Amino acid sequence: MVEFKRFPSPDDLLILLTVARLGRFTAVADALETTHTTVSRRILALDKQLGGRTLERTPQGWELTELGRAAVGAAEGIEKSLSVLTSGIQDGVDAVSGVVRVSASDGFGALIATPALARLQGKHPLLRVELLSGTRRLSQNRSGVDIEVVPGSVDAGRAQTILLSDYTLRLYAGPEYVSKNGMPETVDALATHSFISYVESTLQVAELVQQHRTLTAKPADFQATSVFAQIEAVRANAGIGMLPAFMADGQPGLVRVLPKEVEQKVQFWAASRPESLRSPAVQAVVAAFLQETRARRQQLLPG
C-alpha cells in the first residue's frame, strides 16, 4: 500500500507553483481566492514536509531555491494531470485554462490586448483573464502578474522578453486650437504652443516624454497619467499632444501637426518569468498578442 503521508500535499505544491509564477503572496491569495496567511501557512507546511526551504525572499520578491525548483517541476506535472482529468473535451484536452494575470499600458490594454483576449477566450472557455492597466517600465520586483506588457526599453532581470511590435507617436491638435493659435510650420515654432503629455513626476517610461523634451523646454500645460485623457484634452483644444498613431490617426477632432518633421518610434515588449511561460495558458496569451500586433501592423506603424 502506498503511504501517502510520505508525499507532499499536491495542494501545497500547486500553491508553490502559483507563487513561482506571480512572486507575491498577496497576488497568489487573490488568484486562489484565499488569504495571505493561508498561502504562507501552506508554504511552511510544504517546507517542513520536504525538509528544506522552497522559497527565499529577495529585494525583488520571492524566488525559488534549488529545492523549490524541483518541487515546481513536480507541481507542473500535477497541474498537467489535473488539466487532463478535469478539462477534457470530446476530441481532445484543452490545456489553455485557469487564470492569467496581465499588466499593460492603457492604450495597448484597451485596443490590442482586450480584443485579442476576448477572441482567445472564445476558443478556450475555461480561460479566465485579469487585465490590469498602467503605463510603467518593466518591474524589477515580482509584480504579481503572469505577463507584463510595457512600452520603451526593458531591463528584464530574470524575466524573458518578447518584442511584440514597434509603434509610432505623432503630434496632434484640435481644429479649434489650430484655428485660434495657428498651425506650427516649423519645429522651432512649437516652443510657443501649449502641450499635453504625461505627468512627468509619476511617469516611469522616459521614451514617452523624450520627444516632448526636444520640442520645448517648458513642462506640459496639461498632464495626465492616462493616454485616453490626453487624447480627449487634445480633442478639447487644450494643446498639442504626442499620441500613439494607432489610437489617434483618423479620429474625429484630431489633426496632424508637422507630419513630415516630427515622429517617434517606441516598442511594446511582453515580459514573463520562465515559470509562467511554461504554462500553456500564458503561452497562448503571448501568442494572441503577437498575432494581434502583426494583424494591426499598419495601424501601429502607419506610413
Automatic annotation (TrEMBL):
Gene Ontology process terms (BP): DNA-templated transcription
InterPro entries linked to this entry: LysR-type_TF_proteobact-type (IPR058163), LysR_HTH_N (IPR000847), LysR_subst-bd (IPR005119), WH-like_DNA-bd_sf (IPR036388), WH_DNA-bd_sf (IPR036390)
* Gene Ontology MF terms in the entry: DNA-binding transcription factor activity; sequence-specific DNA binding
Q: Which UniProt keywords apply?
A: DNA-binding, Transcription, Transcription regulation
All copies of the HTH lysR-type domain together span 8-65
Q: Which SUPFAM superfamilies match?
A: Periplasmic binding protein-like II (SSF53850), Winged helix' DNA-binding domain (SSF46785)
> Pfam families from the xrefs?
HTH_1, LysR_substrate
Concerning PANTHER family, the annotation shows: HTH-TYPE TRANSCRIPTIONAL REGULATOR (PTHR30537), TRANSCRIPTIONAL REGULATORY PROTEIN (PTHR30537:SF3)
| Family according to the record | Belongs to the LysR transcriptional regulatory family.
- Output this protein's name: LysR family transcriptional regulator
Question: Source species, please?
Answer: Arthrobacter alpinus
